[in-house]
Amino acid sequence: MIRFDQSGMMIFPTPEKIKRAAKLEELIVIKQCFCPDGHNLVSDQAVFDGFSGIVLKVKTGIDDGLVALNPVYGLKHRISFGIKLRKDELLEVLCPECGKALPVYSTCNCGGDLITLFLDDKHDFTNSLLICNRVDCNNAQIRFHNEVVNYDDSGNAMFG
Ligand SMILES: [Zn+2]
Ligand SMILES: [Zn+2]
To answer: How much distance in Å is there from the Cα of 129 to the middle of ligand 2?
Structure first.
């Protein structure tokens, strides 16, 4: 079992409450992630069960606002501020600090874009958190040294 305590991620035992909700033995928590200009997107503007959330600026054709994502990988809670998210809408995802668009890694299987949040400030696509820009698409993955990180059937974090 690899436990990585590297920039951007830590694994530690799941608090009981979350463990019961998510059936996970261990949590992968995003502790920091960056825009192309190196701004940290993890912010205590939004806190989920004691963990600072990932705060992104989002735009639709008509509106803009902020979305906070649960930093616990695998948990899908998100909160929006100042914008009403409509089901299936595609969002433009920007850094709240500098307003730069976060780069697209690839196309999601829903037809949306997988947006890249860099896990270190080297802007390395092989160390990144990818999230779909479609409201209600739950596709998210972590690439760590280019391997996809996941939870196995018993809820432990694993690679590959
Ligand atoms: Zn920025
Ligand atoms: Zn998608």
So the answer is: 14
Amino acid, single-letter form, for residue 143: R
CA angle in degrees (0–180, nearest 5) for 90-92-96: 140
Question: pLDDT tens-digit profile of 27-80?
Answer: 888 999 999 999 999 998 888 878 889 999 999 988 999 999 989 888 877 788
SS3 assignment, position 44: strand
Beta-carbon neighbours within 5 Å of ion ligand 2: 108, 110, 112, 132, 134, 137, 139
Q: What is the largest CA-CA distance in the chain?
A: 47
Phi, psi (rounded to 5 degrees) for 65? -175, -165
